[in-house]
Amino acid sequence: MNWIDKIYIISLERHNNRRNQIFADLHSAGFDVSKIEWIHAVDGSKLDVIKSINDGVISDTFIDPQGMLTKSVYGCALSHQKAYKQFLETAEHIKTALILEDDASVTHTLLRMCLTKETGYNKLIEEKDSFDWDVIVMGGQYKTIEHLDTNSFVLKEMKRYPVSYAAHSYVINKGGAKKLIESNSPIQFAADVNLHLSDVKLYCTPISYFSQKIGSMDKWTLVQLQSKFKYDVLYTQENWETDEIISSTSYGDYGSTINDGDVFITVGITKEMSSNINTIDFKPFTAPNGDEIDGWVNIHLNK
Q: Which of 51, 116, 173, 234 has the greatest count of CB atoms below 10 A from its CB?
């Protein structure tokens, strides 16, 4: 993909194996590895939350559709911001950058797209030159990426608020980098959620060009296994003799819509963050892109 001018890979210092893996992955796929710049990731485990709030680095309110908050979430968001700022400092002729997290992995779809005579690759070049875009998401939590139906061949307008969010692989231009910094300074959203709440012109490839690895397995495989376990085993069990659905006593209607239309949302806060939590609510808010959003988790922190 010669049209990508820089490749920024976000990685913690201790992740030597991940760096070696993704470097080899990109090299074998034909990427120009001389374009790679390593972003030394912010280690969220060492983050002083109260000081960061008082210094204006992170907001005293964190907003998320799932209510997931850890110090690592902050570290990740700060690391992506670091990549954007580094990109904006490059020369004028550097126009595009591929942002990768070090657990990203090349897919077979991308390998096919890299073939010079491949129709899809030529269409991608044609469309990225003719479309007005800021961000192109190139990998999601699943093999397919949620998008709107358009007449385009490869680049699709991405669904603004998908079922799942991901930021392990996407291309940005400098206009997009500026918008992503502005919409999440101080940090109030996870890096992946910020892609959707910002005012960027957001596109995607319909199929993931990069997967995300957990150990040796694709994350989307693990997500599918987890979902199947939850909904087929944990929450409901089918009694084949009586043809009766039996809800788990402990989990019951967790995750399902109840009669008055409310939906249970589990807030996932790590023990290390618990002392920083003041209150939690679900008040509507106005996103940086101007959308009015209701039902997301607002986590208010102690200063």
A: 173
